Amino acid sequence: MALSTRVALAILTAAVFAVLAGCGDTPHGYEARIRRTSYGIPHIEASDWGGLGFGEGYAQAEDHLCSIADQVVRVRGERARYFGRGESDRHLNSDITMRALAVRARAEAELASMPERFREWLRGFVAGYNSYLMETGVQDIPGWCRGEDWVQSITAEDLFAYQRMFIMTGSYLVDAIATAAPPDDNGVAQAVAYKPQPFNEPGLGSNGWGIGRDLSEAGQGMLLANPHYPWVGSNRFWEKHLAIPGELDVYGAHLVGIPGVAIGFNRGVAWTHTVSAGERTTLYELELSAGSSLKYRYGLEERELTPRLVKVQVLSEEGSTETVERNVYFSHYGPVLNFPDVGWSEERVLALRDANLDNEYSGLQWLEMNLAGSLDELIEAHARRQALPFVNTVAAGSDGRAWYADTASTPHLSPEAIKLWLARRAEGLTERLWRGAGIVLLDGGDSRFEWVDDAEARDPGVVPYRLMPQLERVDYVFNANDSFWLANSRQPIEGPYSPLHGEQRTARSLRTRNNDLTLSNRSPDRPAGEDGKLSLDEMLAAALSNRSLAAELFKPAVVAACRDRQRVEVDGRPIDLAEACETLDAWDGRFDIESRGAVLFREMMARYDRGDLVDRGKLFDGGFGADDPVGTPAVHDLDAEAARSNLAEAILLLQSRGIALDVPLGELQYADKAGKRIPIHGGTSTSEGLLNVVVNAGNATTLEPLARPRRIKGSRLLTEEGYPIGTGTSYLLGVEYRPEGPRAKAILTYSQSGDPASDHFADQTELFSRKQLRPVLFEESDIASDVQREYVVRGDR
Q1: Do the domain assignments include residue 695?
Q2: Other CB atoms within 10 Å distance of the CB of residue 81
Q3: Is 554 found in the same domain as 521?
Q4: Number of structural domains found in the chain
Q5: Which are the catalytic amino acids?
Q6: pTM for the complete prediction?
Q7: CATH number reported for the structural domain that contains residue 510 in this entry
Q8: Which domain holds residue 576?
């Protein structure tokens, strides 16, 4: 579209909006125009930030009010008040932790100091949400929360508290914080058996590609956004187009309950995020004083563990409400943890320090990224705010440059502390926590392990922007959840970066290797073709090729191993490998819906240890070489005996369930949309090496009723209901800048609405099943030609 045409359309749109605005009787209130195009995508326009927030809050409440209301109850610390203690005190522990960390109280104080534009935006969002709730009535709300007494109006402080809670690691360690208590009178440690989760959900990840002019067919920048996030409950993305004429015009998605765009584009720059491999926290081992489990050694002195009394209202089984009081303990680092297998003994306890505890600016940084007119302005927003919580950024500008950076909040340790920690992590509890869960454990009694304050950093103790790894290229940059080191195999990022940002010169995951092979046009598909340039459609086709790097590396050797000896014994039972061998040989090495052999390969590969999939072991006999990070480790002669044994066990598993060895993947792998099974393609990252990751992972942050079929004994992935998908490729977005402006395609895999009765509850899921992406409607002429519903919403300020 010519520039003059775009300007004319913008003027016409503004004039139409002004006329619509003039029709109302609230000239000083909130007002927004919402146009829903195909698949329920809202294009929201207002004349100011309050009105824009009002329109977004109203439209989002139409699609996901229950999820927002659920998270507000959570952040207020009121789940036990409405739902009782919960299984294993789940709700009680959540409330205790929210109140002990003072999440909402902190948010209230922090919001008051934010810029007025940001506060007006949040106030508008809340007013829009409340307006929809009032108009609809609790008894008529669509979705799972209809008629519930916990669905109430919310405040801007509630909304900001939810944003703050989302990025705080402590808010997800609710059991560890809420149950930490001194040893009993007999000196017995208080410990519980649960698995720590450094982030809020298992399986969170993403692929992000920034493509520069040298690899772009159009000669400008391109972006692929491919976050792997939950498909159900909270933490879902919601797609939107937001505009204030002359000030803002941005398209993309953010998580439900958070205004603005976290992944998206405007006319000058496109960006996405991936979960960083760096550290957001450090744990401190506190040596307790002899004779007192409430004091710990710090240098030559003693410090006290300070109790904070928390009171929570709890609904009893009889329907009455009682008050539960509990002390939560804090060191000068942060809350004390009842850490698995450690607990709180007479000798020691662990405490947490979180780099995002004081990070109130993440929402403001995303706002400034939305307003960035170029890649340089996007980079400036990172340097100014330094507020991204736990994600890398991959971006591409219309000028043809691509940029990667890990600017996530990271603890700042001195070189001396890093040297000491590297020595400590070779033994004892420090080694076990690092190797088992990637947790950094420091000596809490040694002041050398305090975080370093830097005047240029966002907050005391975090790494300043100048020390954060980044790379600019004109061919490509990417991230697939490994560390910053390999954003481009032609120019690894090396330097004196803290290992808390991630490891350098270490083996990469199969998915990272697959990403780089694809972008460098070295994969068998050669997605960029003979010209070595990617178009928008070629880029998206590569992301959904479902090509398994594990199959390319290991399938030939596995087939050779089973043909070499076709009968093995498992627990004294003879197993014939002949049919399985032929099934794998005939398989195309992809995880498409119709792929036969993918299920058998999956169950075989899932029997290998994680270490075997990354470096030398039963699969790779050639070790990793930092000078060839994508080609190594290599396969020359894998362990044939282990391959035959794992294949035989996979055969037994499938036969025990009555599943054919050559069953098409789509018969077992699906999305459950209100009882309707929609076949889903894709696979896992670790053992299959796919880009298009979909997995059966739960969502522990929501109270939305979710089906949780039981896992089959002997399988890490198969359930009694097959492979139901709960997490994975969620908001897939491709952007291509051209001289006439941005062109984009997208798919919200689980669809726009959370209401099973909505026409937009499963429509995009059906598209995703067929690998069909929608054209993004960004230009005014395209929007106007596809409007399915148009309405103006108004409310009092």
Answers
A1: no
A2: 17
A3: no
A4: 4
A5: 206
A6: 0.95
A7: 3.60.20.10
A8: 549-667
